[in-house]
Amino acid sequence: MLARYFPILEWGRTYNRSVLTSDLMAAVIVTIMLIPQSLAYALLAGLPPVVGLYASIMPLVLYAIFGTSRTLAVGPVAVVSLMTASAAGAVAAQGTAEYLEAAITLAMLSGVMLAILGLLRAGFLANLLSHPVISGFITASGILIATSQLKHILGIRAGGDNWPDMLGSLAAAIGETNVWTLAIGIPATLFLFWVRKGAKPALQKMGLPPRAADMTAKAGPVVAVVLTIIAVIAFDLGEKGVNLVGAIPQGLPPFAMPSTDLSLIEQLWVPALLISIIGFVESVSVAQTLAAKRRQRIAPDQELIGLGASNIASAFSGGYPVTGGFARSVVNFDAGAETPAAGAFTAVGIALASLFLTPLLFSLPIATLAATIIVAVLSLVDLRTPGQLWRYSKADFAAHIATIGITLVAGVELGVIAGVGVGLLLYLWRASRPHAAIVGRVPETEHFRNVERHKVFTVPHVLSIRIDEALTYLNARWLEEYVLERVAERPELRHVILMCSAVNEIDASGLESLEAINHRLGDSGVGLHLSEVKGPVMDRLKRTHFLEELNGKVFLSQDRAFAEVSKDDGTPPPPVDHYLARGMI
Fold this sequence. Notes:
Blueprint: H1 2-5, H2 8-11, H3 17-44, H4 49-54, H5 58-66, E1 74-75, H6 78-89, H7 97-119, H8 131-154, H9 163-173, H10 179-197, H11 199-205, H12 210-217, H13 220-235, H14 262-293, H15 300-316, E2 323-324, H16 326-334, H17 341-356, H18 366-378, H19 385-392, H20 394-410, H21 412-432, E3 436-441, E4 448-450, E5 462-467, H22 476-488, E6 495-499, H23 508-523, E7 527-531, H24 535-541, H25 546-549, E8 554-555, H26 558-565, H27 576-581
Parallel strand pairs: 5-6, 6-7, 7-8
Antiparallel strand pairs: 1-2, 3-4, 3-5
């Protein structure tokens, strides 16, 4: 029972020296990658860079205790950082104590919400966000994030809460570009792009084994940090207008207290909920993908608790909302991490960096951090999905494009809400108009298929309709109208068979429509029959008066129903040569 809520008790029982070695090696590699990333994402969130380090220590420790993924690396991520900036910026100005307090409070609210949802076993809520909505949101967020960092590459002052405002602000200030900042930012960006694709092959040509080359290439951001710091010092670029990180507080994360101001909480709870859902979906997607590669499993409900504990820990240690990151988790996986202890060791590495390395980052150009962010988030921008969705599903395409458009124009919060809203509306529309088909028997078989797709046998006085959806209040009236319209088109009709093989449920409204259809057909001298009704559905129908009032029969199979009612006029189905003469078989 304890292991269910404390997964560390499960994997900790088998922990040994070999696993320790693998986890320590992975921790070293992830730490090297995470230091520049944490600084950069804090910058993206509008916070002092050191806050990114704070958010990368205690959350990792708490996830190691409560999380179920063996390789997920928790910490600041781009999308959640952008959402934090949007939410905190709505209540306070960047750079103020109130802004930092809002970010810390967001982490606390998010953590509490995630933990409560986990205790309530509400992991299924992640299903409210469809893949097209998530994909559209991440793509739009990637564009927004990359655009927001261009000002740091150019060394200009620009702002904006949405994409048009950002572009307008950049265009207005382009004449103030600092050439020295540009000379740092452009090479750093190009180098980091090359590192992602070209560093590994180049290192392999130099004789490094594939795994070693891959791990070395992952340290590319650190190389960019070191080289640009050297350039700043060598050419005294700080005096030439290049913005630097400056003094970073040295030491371990301080104890922080989230705000208890109810008015602030009232303003932040909706953004905190959105951050929680988006962060959880992103984290679980990464965790499930990596777990599947090793034939492991994760528990979504416990993941909610693990992420909740991580965010609460981030709040009390001066951090901001965190979640499982794709890039660092993949690096953790590839580096050979075998348990969440690798994350705890990474936290130790980040803590040591906070204690001893922060003075070395004084001359780090902000343009380098911006380049790190741009290269990271542009990999999230997916320009192929819209075309694929257009060809496959126009409804999903609409949800995807609506999410992208509204996120770019109105901001991240409205983008998520709009995407979910459009997705739900399209689902309700599809559910209100389910697929149904008139079917006939495939010659020399017991199978029934759509008359518009296959050459099948039918008889004039029998109408067989296959319903491919549960009968609920959303589509009950539609079914009633559909059946009665088909009956009205066939004056010779004497029997209607509803093939219910795909009907998993009939709610009260669906039952009422079936009763109405039964009475209307009975008044017209037409029998209503049901076939292939599933057991749970039949159990519920038996608790009503519908079966007693049904003017036809309930058949075990569609073939049996068709065979019996087609003989009603004394004419049995034609022999096989009937089909041969018409070229049907």
